[in-house]
Amino acid sequence: MKVKIFESNKNHKIDRSSLDELESQVAQWLKENAPIKVVEIKQSAAGGGGGPMQLFLSVWYEPAS
Hints:
The chain is α+β, with helices and mostly antiparallel strands. The chain is built from one helix and three strands; from the N terminus they run βαββ. 26% of the residues lie in helices and 42% in strands.
């Protein structure tokens, strides 16, 4: 099993445009790797409290045979 990590732009606050950008990155990667089998998707966030908030998305997958 492998994992691909995506993260929001760390120089800006998390808003609709940064979420749309993250979604576009994930959609493009899935399109380019269409034969994979996605096993699990997890999301986490870090930061805030004076620093920029970061959003992370991990896609756990099995490569195509």
